[in-house]
Structure formats: structure tokens, C-alpha cells
């Protein structure tokens, strides 16, 4: 059981807004704040550990390097939280255990995949860096984003940077957090297929995208379940994006799933849908931003011949046409998702969506059957689709991680080879929008 003992060591950032933490119970490295298994996070302390389903322990190695001679580890996922202001932060973690092989996956905020299954042998350590967007709903003193119900209390909009360490025996010996500025930002605008899904088994391509990008660029995901082009504006999300956008930043836009539904936010494909997209495009351009259109992912619906049925009507074609007319970059995720689902097949594609018979998904005691929203495997594959097209745009080539291999949705990764350690947060309810 995790002991609720608070350490009162003051948390002081250096003048360049850098915070350094030495994890473990042995002697602390000079200039670092010590974090032991008993340093439990609280708002008053401003930093600390959480291990909701297990116990943290400190593992020591032979003396010599104070920073790496011990680590915090557990058999269960654990979290580190740090109070921070809105901004972009480079996070550098040293991973590895002195006692055994370590496998660590790092997620940030609401399950954004940052580092995938970093493996070290006994006594080995590896240092990796990534960049996290930390944000608030406030735009100015009088205006703020109108959050949806599920977003209240979300780690995307609170006062903390939240890091999740997961996998088989995750182990961390140090964490350094440093504010960074002047990095290009990729803003994401969209719906449930793009947003950071906070709970298992739901996932989106937007929250997988950071794993494939280097610390030279930031992903700021403002998408939310159930949103349309109009509601994204009404909730002041576009105002928030534009308020922090700098020249050279990007705005990726994927909308259609909810925009096609009758109601106050409905838009016609070749008229009002294109008009709303033009508004987003012009707003981004007004700040020197670069708009990128992303056609919507397909739903899972097959005909009797095993071919995917188009349930999105003319919206993908309307976006393609707009891209040509306005000279806007296009990522045709609609076409790639069709190829991907047909390659997986009628039954195989169920493994890419949230399809789980009764009592087969951990933490959920009901059948799950959803042909719109996807699980972590499909989200990961769709993110690779997006990145494969980003590589074709010259300005993105320097932002892709070195280990990214050419990806063809007609030859998807085998689902049995996909490893996703579950975050200890589950929800049987479907996200808004279907």
C-alpha cells in the first residue's frame, strides 16, 4: 500500500524554468529535488508520485553516479505529477532498473503516447526526451473554453503535468522538466476520432501522434468528442488555438462525423461545410499558421463482398475539392482508413474497433460494440497513416522520429504484435458522437 508521507523539500524552478528530480531513496544528486516512493503528490507539495493499484519501491545499484544509482519502480503503472503553468515543456527521463530487465511506456496527460516500450537490461539506463503541451481553458481574463462534461477533472485541463509510467516493470531514475519556447506546434482540431481519450478501451490517432514525432515539434490536441466545426467555434476552442498560435504553427482539421448529422450544427458538404473549413483556414492564416486538411476516418461497415461502405457521404470529396481550390495541404485519412480496414477484413477489423464480448475487457463488465470509435491498436495504425503522409510534406521530415519505418495501410501491423499497457482508468460508455 502506498504510504501517504509528505516531504516538504521546497520546489524551486531555476531562472530558465527547469525542474530536476532524482527518483529513489539513496543520496540525491546536487541541484535535484529528491523523490522517494513515499513522496506522494499533493497540491500543497506541488509534485510527487501516485500509484493507484500497487506499491512503489526504490531499487539501488552500486554507488558512483548519484543520479542513476537508484530508481523508482513498480509492478503496476504509476504516475508523477508536477504543478505547472500553461506552456510547452521538454521532459527528459532516465529509464532503467539496477535489479532486472525494465520495460517502460510513457504516456502524458490523458494517455498521450510519448515513449513506446523502452527496454533496458539489468543495470542499464536510457535517457529519452519528449515535449508536452500543458494548457488551461482560460483564453484571457473574461473568456475561456466551454469544456464538455467529461473534460471536467481531466488531466488535459488541470494545473499539472501528469506523466504515466507503464509496462512490464517500469523504472525511472530521474525526471527533468524544462519550459521550451519557439518550437513549432501542430494544433489538432476535430472530434472523438482525434481527441485524447482519457479512459480505456477508447483511443484516437491524435493521442498516438506524439510517439512518432521528435522533441523538435509540439502536438497540442484541442479536439473533443462530439464536436463539429460549428461547436468547435462555439466552445471557443478555435479562439483559444488562434490566441496562442505563432507564425509557422500548423492547424490539422478533421471534421465530418458529427457535422453530417441533422441539427443546429449540420452543414452541407459542398457549401456550408466548405465555408466553415474556410473560416478555420483563414483564421490560421491570419496568425501566420499553416492549415492542413485531414479527411475523416471511415466507420466500420462492410458490404456482402467485404468492401467498406461509405457512411460519410460527400464530405471527404468536399474536403478534397477544397484542398485543390484553396491550395491547402491534405492528408487523405479517409482513403487510407478504407485501405486499412479492408486489409484487416470484416472480422479482423473488429480488433481495431471497440468490440469486446461480455467480460473480456479488463475493468468493464459489459459487452462493448462500437463501429465508429477505435481502440489503441487502430489509433496507433491511423497515426502511422498520418505520419506517412506528413513525411511527404518536406517541412515535416525533420520532425519524424528516427525509428519510424515506411507504413502501408494495405499491410498493417499484426494486432497480436501490438503492445499497449492499459492505463488504470476504464469507461464502458461510448464517447459522444457515433
From TrEMBL:
Record key words, sorted: Hydrolase
Molecular-function annotations in GO: hydrolase activity, acting on ester bonds
Domain SGNH hydrolase-type esterase, residue spans: 191-335
Ranges for domain Beta-agarase/YXIM esterase-like galactose-binding: 19-119
Keyword Disulfide bond: no
CDD domains found in the cross-reference section: Rhamnogalacturan_acetylesterase_like
Pfam families named in the record: AGA-YXIM_GBD, Lipase_GDSL_2
Protein family per UniProt: Belongs to the 'GDSL' lipolytic enzyme family.
UniProt-recorded name of the protein: Rhamnogalacturonan acetylesterase
Species annotation: Plebeiibacterium marinum
Amino acid at each position: 500500500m502506498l504510504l501517504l508521507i509528505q516531504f516538504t523539500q521546497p520546489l524551486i524552478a531555476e531562472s530558465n524554468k527547469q525542474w530536476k528530480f532524482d527518483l529513489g531513496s539513496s543520496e540525491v544528486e546536487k541541484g535535484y529535488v529528491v523523490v522517494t516512493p513515499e513522496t506522494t503528490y499533493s497540491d500543497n507539495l506541488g509534485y510527487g508520485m501516485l500509484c493507484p493499484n500497487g506499491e512503489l519501491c526504490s531499487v539501488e545499484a552500486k554507488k558512483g553516479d548519484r543520479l542513476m544509482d537508484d530508481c523508482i519502480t513498480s509492478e503496476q503503472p504509476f504516475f508523477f505529477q508536477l504543478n505547472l503553468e500553461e506552456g510547452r515543456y521538454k521532459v527528459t527521463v532516465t529509464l532503467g532498473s539496477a535489479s532486472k530487465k525494465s520495460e517502460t511506456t510513457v504516456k502524458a496527460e490523458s494517455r498521450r503516447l510519448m515513449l513506446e516500450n523502452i527496454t533496458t537490461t539489468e543495470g542499464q539506463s536510457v535517457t529519452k526526451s519528449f515535449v508536452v503541451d500543458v494548457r488551461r481553458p482560460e483564453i484571457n481574463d473574461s473568456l475561456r473554453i466551454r469544456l464538455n462534461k467529461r473534460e471536467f477533472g481531466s488531466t488535459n485541463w488541470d494545473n499539472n503535468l501528469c506523466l504515466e509510467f507503464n509496462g512490464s516493470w517500469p523504472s525511472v531514475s530521474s525526471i527533468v522538466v524544462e519550459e521550451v519556447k519557439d518550437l513549432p506546434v501542430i494544433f489538432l482540431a476535430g472530434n472523438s476520432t482525434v481527441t485524447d481519450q482519457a479512459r480505456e478501451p477508447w483511443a484516437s490517432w491524435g493521442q498516438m501522434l506524439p510517439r512518432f514525432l521528435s522533441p523538435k515539434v509540439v502536438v497540442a490536441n484541442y479536439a473533443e468528442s462530439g464536436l463539429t466545426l460549428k461547436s468547435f467555434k462555439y466552445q471557443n476552442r478555435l479562439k483559444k488555438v488562434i490566441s496562442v498560435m505563432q507564425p509557422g504553427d500548423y492547424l490539422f482539421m478533421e471534421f465530418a462525423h458529427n457535422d453530417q448529422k441533422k441539427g443546429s450544427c449540420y452543414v452541407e458538404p459542398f457549401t456550408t461545410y466548405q465555408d466553415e473549413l474556410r473560416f478555420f483556414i483563414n483564421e490560421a492564416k491570419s496568425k501566420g499558421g499553416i492549415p492542413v486538411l485531414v479527411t475523416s476516418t471511415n466507420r466500420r461497415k462492410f458490404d456482402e463482398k467485404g468492401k467498406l461502405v461509405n457512411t460519410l457521404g460527400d464530405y471527404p470529396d468536399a474536403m478534397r475539392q477544397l484542398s485543390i481550390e484553396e491550395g491547402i495541404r491534405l492528408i487523405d485519412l479517409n482513403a487510407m482508413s478504407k485501405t486499412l480496414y479492408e486489409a484487416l477484413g470484416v472480422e479482423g477489423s473488429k480488433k481495431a474497433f471497440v468490440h469486446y464480448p461480455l467480460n473480456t475487457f479488463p475493468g468493464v463488465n459489459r459487452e462493448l460494440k462500437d463501429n465508429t470509435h477505435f481502440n489503441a491498436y487502430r489509433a496507433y495504425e491511423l497515426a502511422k497513416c498520418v505520419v506517412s503522409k506528413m513525411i511527404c510534406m518536406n517541412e515535416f521530415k525533420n520532425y519524424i522520429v528516427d525509428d519510424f519505418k515506411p507504413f502501408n495501410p494495405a499491410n498493417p501491423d499484426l494486432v497480436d504484435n501490438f503492445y499497449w499497457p492499459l492505463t488504470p482508468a476504464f469507461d464502458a460508455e461510448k464517447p459522444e458522437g457515433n
